[in-house]
Amino acid sequence: MDLVPQPIAPHPFHAPHGPLPSLGTGEGKAAVAKGPGLYSGPHCAGLTVGLLGGSFNPAHAGHRHISLFALKALGLDRVWWLVSPQNPLKPAAGMAALPERLAEARRVAAHPRIEATSIETALGTRYTADTLAELTRRFPKTRFVWLMGADNLRQIPLWRHWTRIFESVPVAVFARPTYSLSALSGQAAQRYIRRRVSKHGVKGLARRKRPAWVFFRNPLHTASATAIRQARAAGP
């Protein structure tokens, strides 16, 4: 969660592109239950929000590249970066502290419609399927789209209750260097092959009956969190 709680107005949304509420405050779980309209109020009603989850260890220009592409291609109002407290599939060793990763994600995002948040800490969820269940319950009038790279489409069958993700929200998958072909021939893509949306229907993806997913052959970005960590470890 954030290091310093931020004051939040009860109803900050007065227009489709009004200010985004802070989603990861120092109030922690208490904010979920008692926050002034933070999770149960009308301020997100009617918005379409892309959710990009991950460790963000660290956040980099590739995350921002995908988010900006998604905002335009899918007609999103917002993108929320869900900075995970600890990815169950990744070792804790070498993982920077959550406040550090969250602060860097906010610096990298640098866009009024991209919000880096530690909301999973407040919700008390570790797995994507559980996080989506909580978000759709607490924001019943907000349309969510799960955003992920082709590498995650390939490995998503390893995720807990992974089919619930496709049943909960529409999914948008973005091409990543070297992963696209293997991802499209993988278990998840083949299971939902008949539910894949053509490029002509992507603007309405958030309103489609689930499961519904799209694969974007977007311009590639070469940034890699692993490469950045290795470069930082090597020093100047």
From TrEMBL:
<comment type="similarity">
    <text>Belongs to the NadD family.</text>
</comment>
<dbReference type="GO" id="GO:0004515">
    <property type="term" value="F:nicotinate-nucleotide adenylyltransferase activity"/>
</dbReference>
<keyword id="KW-0547">Nucleotide-binding</keyword>
<protein>
    <recommendedName>
        <fullName>Probable nicotinate-nucleotide adenylyltransferase</fullName>
        <ecNumber>2.7.7.18</ecNumber>
    </recommendedName>
</protein>
<feature type="region of interest" description="Disordered">
    <location>
        <begin position="1"/>
        <end position="28"/>
    </location>
</feature>
<keyword id="KW-0520">NAD</keyword>
<keyword id="KW-0548">Nucleotidyltransferase</keyword>
<dbReference type="GO" id="GO:0009435">
    <property type="term" value="P:NAD+ biosynthetic process"/>
</dbReference>
<keyword id="KW-0808">Transferase</keyword>
<dbReference type="GO" id="GO:0005524">
    <property type="term" value="F:ATP binding"/>
</dbReference>
<keyword id="KW-0067">ATP-binding</keyword>
<feature type="domain" description="Cytidyltransferase-like">
    <location>
        <begin position="51"/>
        <end position="230"/>
    </location>
</feature>
<comment type="function">
    <text>Catalyzes the reversible adenylation of nicotinate mononucleotide (NaMN) to nicotinic acid adenine dinucleotide (NaAD).</text>
</comment>
<dbReference type="InterPro" id="IPR014729">
    <property type="entry name" value="Rossmann-like_a/b/a_fold"/>
</dbReference>
<keyword id="KW-0662">Pyridine nucleotide biosynthesis</keyword>
<dbReference type="InterPro" id="IPR004821">
    <property type="entry name" value="Cyt_trans-like"/>
</dbReference>
<dbReference type="InterPro" id="IPR005248">
    <property type="entry name" value="NadD/NMNAT"/>
</dbReference>
<comment type="pathway">
    <text>Cofactor biosynthesis; NAD(+) biosynthesis; deamido-NAD(+) from nicotinate D-ribonucleotide: step 1/1.</text>
</comment>
<dbReference type="Pfam" id="PF01467">
    <property type="entry name" value="CTP_transf_like"/>
</dbReference>
